[in-house]
Amino acid sequence: MRNVLPYASHHEVLNPATGQLVRSVPATTPDEVDAAVFLAAGAQQRWAALAPADRARLLRRFAIAVDERIEELARLEVLQAGHTIGNARWEAGNVRDLLDFAAGGVERLSGRQIPVPGGLDITILEPLGVIGVIAPWNFPMPIAAWGMAPALAAGNAVLLKPAETTPLTALRLAEIALEAGLPEHLFQVLPGAGDVAGGALVEHPGVAKIVFTGSTRVGKAIMARCAERVKRVTLELGGKSPNIIFSDADLEAAVAATPMSFLDNSGQDCCARTRILVQRPVYDRFLELLAPAIESIAVGDPADEKTQMGPLISQAQLNRVRSYVPDELPGIRGTAPEGPGFWFPPTVLTDIAADAPAAVEEVFGPVAAVLPFDDESDAIRLANATEYGLSGSLWTRDLGRAIRVSRAVAAGNLSVNSHSSVRYWTPFGGYKQSGFGRELGPDALTAFTETKNVFFSSTPRVQEV
Ligand code: NAD
Q1: Potential cystine with 214: which of 136, 187, 336, 389 (Cβ 3.0-4.6 Å)?
Q2: How do strand 435-436 and strand 242-245 relate by DSSP bridges?
């Protein structure tokens, strides 16, 4: 009799621009996860025992190898995720930069010497062991590398579980790591179903920490399961970020930056500025200027250099986005290709209630809601009227206001007169239900270490006194 597994043996990777099959990828079973953890644990011990300069050198070689394959990786991302080719090149370059930046930290990962009486006290930053990185489909390469690069640099092994829809660039990165000379089994990619391959990583006693980026719903379940084992966990979850435009702002600059602040990656961005809050005196003028900017966004073949926005990742995501935007909702709408593929036009919802689902829930598509506000305190109240707290922007020429509002908005990453959120030099993470823990920035490696304190007594032995 055929042995039927209780889960899929393969996942089909589709091209989101056409709906066509790209490749079918075998799904990792729990037994295979178990074997991978065992091999990773051995590789980690040998990796941590290498001289720091050698580990740094190998990570730099990995960075160079990625740099030499930017175009190949970018084309693969266009194929499996529908990212525009320009974005995909940036994302592959971001992996290179993250590896370089992390490599620079290997030889600087210092503990402290703390003044104490009766001896000498030092802290040692020790690697945690095997790290499970569970990544979403929206930025398959950068998000994988946010965890993988600093974790390796701090002396850990990494098991990466990519999303079901986007495993191909992750699998290629693991091959490139080997080609660059990284030890076998140190960085392994385990494609498969979330609750099977991902669940096995979360449950496995040999995995010391889970770095999860994805939906708040799954993040909560993973946190609960990690709690049973007191397993370390970092959660990078959803967002519903505000773009606050005060009437004293440079309105033309604010308008010019608005479309791609929520349309980049077809709005499938946890930092997308999907709640556009505009002060009443400039509200009408803002919409007047915004309409042509939205209508002229080039939506189409993501491999075309001129394209600004590609498709959504899947039919399921398209259905989800459609469910938030009934045809009768008033708004500004751009264009999108008809026919096969998962297309949705750029959409700005006007005259929407501040508590409507599309105004407070994460749509994760090219959809933003515009809401008017009266004054500074009203803007802060609206900005904080969400369970999320990941990112946000504010536009003003008043420096005092910029300081006050950026202190008052409860979010991990704020930007004044721009829409910047994620930079590998600076810490990134959420407030409230957008998660906890910080990635990137100067302390990225420390998140993958345990601090050990050692006290050396200097008290002479009795007979020597
Ligand atoms: P998701 O939560 O459905 O899946 C994320 C990953 O978790 C996938 O690899 C999935 O296979 C895995 N997974 C699912 N169920 C699991 C389980 N029971 N156990 C272990 N792993 C499991 O999210 P998604 O739809 O892939 O990604 C979109 C979400 O990610 C959005 O909510 C977005 O805001 C969020 N996101 C957050 C950040 C951030 O840094 N805060 C960045 C990007 C995306």
Answers
A1: 136
A2: unpaired
Same domain, 281 and 231: no
Residues whose CB is less than 8 angstroms from the CB of residue 420 and which lie 6 or more positions away in sequence, other chains included = none
C-alpha dihedral (174, 147, 78, 348), degrees to nearest 10: 170
Q: Ligand 1, closest atom to CA 139?
A: 43
Q: Do 258 and 191 share a structural domain?
A: no
Residue 392's nearest CA partner among 373, 374, 378, 411 is 411
Q: Which atom of ligand 1 is nearest to the CA of 218?
A: 2
What pLDDT sits at residue 329?
Answer: 87
425 belongs to a structural domain = no
Pick from 116, 72, 124: nearest CA to 93: 72
CATH code of the domain covering residue 253: 3.40.309.10
Active site residues: 236
The Å distance, Cα 50 to ligand 1 centre, comes to 34
Domain identity same for 406 and 440: no
CB of 402 within 6 A of ligand 1: the answer is no
Secondary structure of residue 39 in the 3-state scheme: helix
pLDDT of amino acid 167: 98
Question: Are 394 and 354 members of one domain?
Answer: yes
Whether residues 170 and 149 fall in one domain:
yes
Report the domain count for the chain: 2
pLDDT at position 464 is 58
Assess whether the C-beta atom of 439 lies below 6 angstroms from ligand 1: no
Q: Are residues 225 and 257 in the same domain?
A: no
**Do 213 and 317 belong together in one domain?**
no
Range of the domain at 139: 10-237+434-453
* pLDDT tens, position by position, 13-64: 999 999 999 999 999 999 999 999 999 999 999 999 999 999 999 999 999 9
Summarize pLDDT for 98-112 with one digit per residue, the tens: 999 999 999 999 999
Distances (CA, A) of 132 to 27, 92, 283, 436: 16, 21, 46, 17
* Torsion, CA 166, CA 235, CA 145, CA 197, rounded to 10: -50
Q: Does 194 sit in the ligand 1 pocket, CB within 6 Å? A: yes
The residue whose CB lies within 8 Å of the most ligand 1 atoms, and thus the one to mutate among 164, 209, 213, 266, is 213
Lowest-pLDDT range of 260-264, 417-421, 433-437: 417-421
Q: How far does the chain reach from its first CA to its final CA, in angstroms?
A: 80
Query: Cβ(324)–Cβ(367) under 8 Å?
Result: yes
What pLDDT score was predicted for residue 2? Answer: 45
Take atom 41 of ligand 1 and give the residue whose Cα is closest: 236
Residues 252, 183, single domain; the answer is no
- Its pTM stands at 0.96
pLDDT tens, residue by residue, 147-158: 999 999 999 999
